[in-house]
Amino acid sequence: MRPSDGEHRAGLLHGIAAYGMWGLVPLFWPLLEPSGAMEILAQRMVWSLAIVALALLVLRRWGWIRELVSSPRKLGLITVAAVTISVNWGLYIWSVNNGRVVEAALGYFINPLVTVAIGVLVLKERLRPAQWAAVGTGVAAVVVLTVGYGQPPWISLTLAFSFATYGLAKKKVNIGGLESLAAETAVLFLPAMGFLVWLAADGGLSFGAEGLGHAALLAATGLVTAVPLVCFGAAAIRVPLSTLGLLQYLAPVLQFLLGILYFKESMPAERWAGFALVWLALICLTWDALRTARRTRAQALRLAAAAKSRALAAPAEPAPAPQAAPEPDRACAAPRGPAEPAG
């Protein structure tokens, strides 16, 4: 197995782990009540930095800090990633704890379509006809859901765009998952700690006021945050954005099933229609991606086979004949007599 194949397989495994954990995380957030979404978000930031810093201390991985600090571009990308993921975290927690798991799941269903759109707008990629059809079907789904909800599905759209932007920033910054998370949580640490201090002074902090078990659960938000994000960061630098788009289906499928079967959220006919259009778009996008990958792989194999055939068919060139040594100049090679005395 070539090293690149090993990196790709590791990226796939990290991506599956990340999206699987994100798919099941709606079971965790209701355990943190009566904490509000903003306090849970701030606790996530603080405890995530503590856990990541401990991991870096154990692994002795600090060399990346100097490179990051000396690169304004990477610092800017890390800041964009930190801001967008904090928006995504906060809104997702609020959605789950307010009985809108299905709408949150829709955001992650839409996310691959948004990723394709960002590829066109930001990376100047050219879409194939099937991709255009998928994006158009996704737009139609949003229109149907807007009619059904009576307003645009703003939770779904905000989650989709924030996470797609986060993935793009992670791809561009190109540092390890653990290091990237450490940098992001460092950017968020001071605002999060300031908010918690203000909340405590105002008497609204639930940490410590609801018992030791509740405080332990809030502290565990660091692990719940760090582990899947480290896996996602490791996947983002090893596999293409298109592959990440395919892996993202795992999380919303699990979330959707939890919303329907566990949280018992309602699904009127217009929502089913909107979801059906989204799923149709994703099927089209997936089919096109698999077909393109298969054609690319077949073309690479054909080119390799043709190059090998040409190399075997080419006749061996004869070795050059050895050249005869030139005869010595007899005048120069004649023995000289004894040197004459000087003048």
From TrEMBL:
Signal peptide: none annotated. The chain crosses the membrane at residues 12-32, 44-63, 75-94, 106-123, 130-147, 181-201, 213-237, 244-263, 269-290. It is a multi-pass membrane protein. One of its GO terms (cellular component) is plasma membrane. It comes from the Bacteria. Residues 314-343 are annotated as: Disordered. Keywords: Cell membrane, Membrane, Transmembrane, Transmembrane helix, Transport. It is found in: Cell membrane. Coiled coil: none annotated. Residues 11-146 form the EamA domain. It holds the Pfam family EamA. The keyword Transmembrane applies. Belongs to the EamA transporter family. This is Protein RarD.
